[in-house]
Amino acid sequence: MGAKVMERFPAGAPRGSWPAEEYAAALRAEGEPATVVMDLKSDAFLVVVPARDED
């Protein structure tokens, strides 16, 4: 199973700011099963959704 990266956010957001979580919440409100994961190599938060089969 794969995942599609919808957006990436730098890990150094201002204190009290959670832009990746806010973006994922907006996607979930639209029905997308969005999740936030940390990419340690690039020091960024990724908002991902499960990859869909394009038949």
Automatic annotation (TrEMBL):
Domain of life (superkingdom): Bacteria
Protein name: Uncharacterized protein
